[in-house]
Amino acid sequence: MGSVKMQARLLALVLFLLGAGSTAYQILVQKVPLSQDEKDPVWVLDAQISFTARPSKPVKVKMFVPPQGAGYTTLNESFISNNYGVNVNQEKGNRQVTWSARRADGNQFLYYRLMLTPRFAETAENEPGPQFRPAPTLEGPEKLAAEALLQPIRQHSADVETFISETIKRVNELENDNVQLLLGSDLSPENRARVVDLLLAMSHIPAEPVHTLHLTESQEQEPELWLRSYNGRQWLYFNPVDGQQGLPEDRLVWWSGPEPLLSLDGGKSADVIFSVHRNEMSALQLAQSLRHKDVGSFIDISLYDLPLPAQQLYRILVMIPVGVLLVLLIRSLVGMETLGTFTPVLIALAFRETQVVWGVILFTFITAIGLSVRSYLEHLKLQLLPRLSVVLTFVVIVMALLSLLGYKLGINSGLSLALFPMVILTMVIERTSVVWEERGGTQSLKVGLGTLLAAVLCHLLMVWQPLVYTVFTFPGVLLCIAAVMVVMGHYRGYRLTELVRFRAMVDEGR
User: Fold this and answer.
1) In what order do the strands lie in the sheet with 106-117?
2) Alpha carbons within 13 A on the beta-carbon side of 14
């Protein structure tokens, strides 16, 4: 017996671990939302390009656009123009869009819109970069100033990371005479980044500028300049103004390199205005839209991949084990008697159509009529099969009459009565009458009320939307439920109702 219990416990443990493991995988790896009301941020980035075209001249506009999969999932990318051809190419590790037109006159406007979300984003591959570059040739005061700055930097650094940080720190000491000489009168972030890059080049450390956009609500925004360098394992990002290391999560890399954002042929007075807006979208709707775009999401390997009619069916079916578990706990821990284990669950399914109040009324009424018919048939000494057949026929007749009466009175719940499981009602009537004969009317009424109460509780649990979403989205929960059922299979302890039954024995012992 001990070996059997151990096997049952091991089985329950395996089932629980499998269920909990699959659920954890969905939450942690697939980023499945824990609630159907959970929303994800969707960033809408707009770039408005304006310029004046030269009369009777071909126009070509080139602009860098963000790379795909840079820590975000692209939902939509639009290139909006009038009578312009659009082409997107790779250019020195960047993506570049080209608008072209044979003729254009006057003021021109082009638009680029990008919608992206951090949900379901895959980590971008860490492409290796250069780790060495030749030092530039400097002469005169610039060479002396650079060497004077590099001497303490080398003394206070241990690797590439600390060397770059120390260099940025020194260049931002604007009162230093050597720094002033290299910067001149231009204290802009771009010029500071140029001086930092110069000092790094003197030490053969490659670095390149990276232009980012801050994902925050804004009407007009300028790209923010960062520097990055490859240390042999990963790219290191640095802010050339304050020395902050590590690119924040709310920064989107737009393009890298010293090239300008926009280049224009056949026009003048080019300008780009960035705006960023934040929207919210339901995580489930987001996954649906990604699935339609052939972007990997949890829907591709879940019940959400089924057709909608099948999804509606399985939303009901997956809740049946939940109702069965509730009946099992009610019978094993509470001690409430019901007409079988599955009968309350099946009645609870019928309550989905009739609603609880009407369902209880109709169930009670039809059962009472059926018991009366069954009692009379018992008086006729009919055998079991003919008796059940007659009771089933009368159940159908009563259901039809109630549906017709409900239609005449304008009660829609009466029309749903036909969905009540006729065979289940027939078996309930038969079992109730057997209990009545064997254990008396009081016990029969007690078991009937217990069945009805269990059915109501099962219905309320099985239609609770947060639980329906959890079980349907995380099917591993069903394995955890099965594990609890296996454990309950060896429960032999007291039930709550027995504490009341045996209270008299305790009082006598005192």
Assistant:
1) 73-80, 106-117, 39-53, 267-282, 218-221
2) 6
Cross-strand pairs, 77 = 114
Per residue in 319-356, pLDDT tens?
Answer: 999 999 998 888 888 878 888 778 888 888 878 777 78
Lowest mean pLDDT among 51-65, 145-159, 427-441, 456-470: 427-441
Strands 73-80 and 106-117: antiparallel
For residues 329 and 478, the answer to whether their CB atoms sit within 8 Å is no
d(CA 256, CA 143) in angstroms, rounded, equals 28
Cβ–Cβ < 8 Å for 390, 426: no
The dihedral built from the CA positions of residue 330, 336, 340 and 343, taken in this order, carries a sign that is negative
pTM of the model: 0.65
Per-residue pLDDT at 461 = 92
Q: Tally Cβ neighbours within 10 Å of residue 497.
A: 13
Q: Which residues of 177-204 are buried (b: 16+ CB within 10 A; e: fewer)?
A: ebbebbbeeeeeeebbbbbbbbbbbbbe
Sorted by sequence, the CB contacts under 8 Å of residue 160 that are 6+ apart come out as: 205, 229, 231, 236
> How many whole angstroms separate alpha carbon 148 and alpha carbon 178?
7
Which helix or strand (DSSP H or E) is residue 74 part of?
strand 73-80
pLDDT at residue number 124? 54
Within 410-464, where are the H helices?
412-415, 422-439, 441-462
Count the helices and strands in the chain (H runs, E runs).
18, 13
Is the pLDDT reported for residue 166 higher than 70?
Answer: yes
Spatial contact of 97 and 88, defined as CB atoms under 8 Å apart: yes
Cβ burial of 396 (10 Å; 0-12, 13-18, 19+) is middle
- For residue 417, give the nearest of 389, 392, 438, 398 by alpha carbon: 398
Please name the residues in contact with 138: beta carbons below 8 A apart, sequence gap of 6 or more: 146, 202
Q: Which element (helix H / strand E) includes 162?
A: helix 160-171
State the Cα–Cα distance between residues 349 and 456, nearest whole angstrom. Answer: 10
Q: How is residue 90 written in tokens?
A: 């790779």
Tell which residue, 199, 250, 186, 202, has the closest CA to residue 227: 199
Contact 69, 296 (CB under 8 A): no
Q: pLDDT (tens digit, 9 = 90+) per residue, 382-408?
A: 776 777 778 778 777 877 787 777 777
What value, to the nearest 5°, has the Cα angle with vertex 44 and ends 39 and 46? 175
Angle, alpha carbons 73-79-82 (nearest 5°): 165
Looking from the CA of 99 toward its CB, the CA atoms found within 13 Å total 28
